[in-house]
Hints:
By secondary structure, the chain is of the alpha/beta class. The protein is 42% helix and 9% strand. It has 12 helices and 7 strands.
Amino acid sequence: MNAVGSIKPNARPFYQKYNAAQLKEALRRMYLIRRFEEGAEEAYMRGLIHGTMHLSIGQEASAVGATMALRNSDYITSTHRGHGHCIGKGAEPKLMFAEFFGKEEGYCRGRGGSMHIADVATGNLGANGIVGGGLPIAVGAALAIKKQKRDDVAMCFFGDGASNEGAFHEALNMAAIWKLPVVFVCENNKYGMSVSTERSMAVANVADRASAYNMPGVIVDGNSIADVEEAIAAAIERARKGEGPTLLECKTYRTRGHSRSDRNRYRSKEEIEEWKARDPIPRFEVELMAHGIATEADVRSIREAAEAEIAAGIEFARNGTDPDPGDVTRDVYSPEAA
């Protein structure tokens, strides 16, 4: 069916567009993202994962809402805080954990780790440890789409800090000149590392910069999956029609620090607690139950299933195959070059 049977005729488009199974799947993916990152954090604390990681806890509505209307043939480029984007685009948590644990079963055979997970089969061109690094890649992918005369799109995730990089301005300018099918999604979580947007930007909003490149600039509540999806869907439709790029700014928040080494001295406990009260997951649960799409038992079942999948994923990764030191240079060169 095209819409949930119990939805009222005057319900907002998001709840008319998707059926009950699709909306419950969206909640499941939000749970998977949250528990994946909590599970990764726990594994790190136990010494099972080395290095660092950048968690997006609190930003799940942005990741899932942005990717709901995408096809497998659509592309995404991600960020150093990209676990949610991976799961939103269809990645399997167990293979992501294997990547975290440095195992051969990981998406990049354990070579990429937290910040460089890619899954080409689902159109995920990869996360990127370089701030703003995904912007020119997304423009290149969109140019390929246009040259091949496809109606697919490239979606580029980046943070507020990346909007101050030269690559941001170059990417938006080129995409606008050539009317490329790119959807630029800024997840503005208020801080670039420890620097607030108030101190680092000359304009109030990242989306205000869209006018310089003659494209729509849209601001949405990044903690509302419905708001995100509706705005993104319009941008995707515009791109598929050949009308060019859109810049969307999702106002959201990370409740954890920038990375595991962040001591959080630049923001107050009151600010963090205020944003925790806007948690996108319980907010979506309440909306699903208010619309008669899910019961409390349904929500509990979805949560428990996500918990079980994450636990199984961690166990899968722990029992994975350690890389052979003799293969340290494997995949550095193509077979022909080698």
